[in-house]
Each structure stands twice: as structure tokens, then as C-alpha cells.
TrEMBL record:
Keywords: Signal
Lineage start: Eukaryota, Metazoa, Chordata, Craniata, Vertebrata
Name of the protein in its database record: Uncharacterized protein
Residues spanning the signal sequence: 1-22
């Protein structure tokens, strides 16, 4: 029974590694996001592009 532990541990590690590599984390500092940036088409285009890549 001791020999069965390693394959199970390796399989769990590989499965968790696959999940971790598929995660995307994104953060924005919205304190400096005001009306001027919201009305800027270039800024909004970049934010939309980034947002679409996360979904």
C-alpha cells in the first residue's frame, strides 16, 4: 500500500498545477479612474480588450 501513495500524490500535483496555470489574475487601481479616463476612447478600448481576455 505504501507504493500507491507516490502515483496518487504525483497525479494530484499535476492536476493542481494544471488548474493553477490556467488562472488569470488582474487588478486595477480605480482610485485614479475619473470621468476624463472614462470618456477617453483609447483608455476604454484597452480596458475592454483586457476584460475580454479574462473571460
Amino acid at each position: 500500500h505504501r507504493g500507491m501513495k507516490w502515483p496518487v500524490l504525483v497525479a494530484c500535483f499535476v492536476g493542481l498545477w494544471h488548474v493553477a496555470m490556467s488562472l488569470k489574475i488582474c487588478a486595477f487601481n480605480v482610485q485614479s479612474f475619473g470621468e476624463a479616463k472614462a470618456n477617453n476612447k483609447k483608455v476604454m478600448g484597452i480596458l475592454i480588450k483586457v476584460g475580454l481576455q479574462l473571460n
